[in-house]
Structure formats: C-alpha cells, structure tokens
Specification:
Radius of gyration: 14 Å
Strand content: 15-25%
Distance between the termini: 21 Å
Shape: globular
Number of helices: 4
Strand order of the largest sheet: 1-4-2-3
Largest sheet: 4 strands, mixed
C-alpha cells in the first residue's frame, strides 16, 4: 500500500462522513503532511480541551509555510464506546477553527470519527496538502 492510499484508508477507517471520491484528490497533490495528536488528559471531560491546548501550543505545521496548503482534512475521533458528547462540540469547532486559521485559503473538510482502543481519550488526525 502506498503512502497516499494509507492516508486515505486511515481517514476512512475512522469516519464514514467522507467518501473515497472526496479524498481521491490526495493522489494529485505535491505534498501531504499528516499529523496525529492524542489527548492525555485522563479525564473524559477534558479530552477535547486538552487536544486544543496541545495543538495550539506545540504544533508547527511543517517545513512548508502553512499558507501554502490548499486543503486540510481533520478527523476528531473517540472510542466507539465513549462517543463525543454534546458539551464537546463547541471545543471541536474551536479546534477546526484554529487549524483552518493556520491555512486561511485552504478548503477544510472535517468530521467526527471513531477509533477502537482510545478509551476516555480522543485523537486528532490532520492531513494538510497542496
């Protein structure tokens, strides 16, 4: 499996909100920069705020100026047994807003997803591309 195929598969395993057709553009990109962040809050009520804090403090997109990216795919995943709760939706929107703000001209696709084994934690998967 090639890198692009792996990236697409990784996204589609987590969410059914995207179709393969929506992600096939990745085969025609010059650069794909994936990043994965995990909450380590050890408290279900803090998992998305922790992801937002981690991303805003410690992320540097890549060696490429973030303004260069034309598309960003964001998936915020939780364990299927511990789904996103209503009070977390606002924080999820802040995460998407912050990521999108780094590449203001980029088309941003985002979705909630699931990943077994996360327990009370959450995962943020971001794929920047141009």
């Amino acid at each position: 499996m090639g890198k692009v195929e792996y990236d697409i598969d990784r996204i589609l395993r987590r969410t059914q909100q995207f179709t393969r057709a929506e992600l096939n553009y990745l085969f025609d990109t010059k650069l794909i920069t994936p990043a994965t962040y995990h909450s380590r809050a050890y408290d279900r009520s803090r998992r998305l705020p922790y992801l937002l804090e981690t991303f805003t403090r410690y992320s540097s997109v890549t060696e490429v100026d973030p303004i260069t990216y034309t598309r960003v795919v964001i998936t915020i995943s939780t364990d299927p047994e511990v789904p996103i709760e209503a009070h977390e939706i606002g924080c999820a929107a802040e995460i998407v807003k912050h990521i999108g703000g780094q590449s203001p001209a980029a088309e941003v696709l985002w979705a909630f997803g699931t990943e077994e084994g996360l327990g009370d934690e959450a995962e943020l998967l971001v794929e920047w591309s141009y």
